[in-house]
Amino acid sequence: AAPPAPPAPAPAPVAAPGPRQIAPSAVRYQKLPDLHFPALSKRAREEGTVVLRITVDITGRLKQATVHKSSGFDRIDQAALQDIRTARFVPHMEDGKPVEWQTLAPLAYEL
């Protein structure tokens, strides 16, 4: 007698799609972030641009923000992480439905 056939492999689980990557130029703000230049950075004449990687949910609310490229000054980087939370975004639509999205968002802190 032939040995029984091995069981069929289980189908691979379908991973939930990650956030849609969009170009920074495609970001539409309902409300721009309020930038608060740290007082100690002003006195120390620190300035620079922080590039944040942001993830925005289907309603246009910030879900996550991390520093992608530092300004070179921790105080300014931390201010950018706080300031981006004051922004509101227009939901990104695909096929008539809002989708979660991710992009790079530069915030410039200049004296």
Number of strands: 8
Question: In percent, how much strand structure appears in the residues?
Answer: 35-45%
SS content category: mainly beta
Poorly predicted runs: none
Span from first to last CA? 85 Å
Order of helices and strands: EEHEEHEEEE
Apparent shape: elongated
Going across the major beta sheet, what is the strand order? Answer: 1-8-3-4
Count of helices? 2
Oligomer: single chain
Radius of gyration: 21 Å
The biggest beta sheet is recorded as: 4 strands, mixed
Give a short summary of the structure.
The protein is mostly beta strands and 111 residues long.
Structural commentary:
With about 110 residues, this protein is mainly beta. The protein is built from 2 helices and 8 strands; from the N terminus they run E-E-H-E-E-H-E-E-E-E. It has helices spanning about 40-45, 75-85, and strands at about 20, 30, 50-55, 60-70, 90, 90-95, 95-100, 100-110. The strands form 3 sheets. Strands 1-8-3-4 form a 4-stranded mixed beta sheet. It has a two-stranded antiparallel ribbon with strand order 2-5.
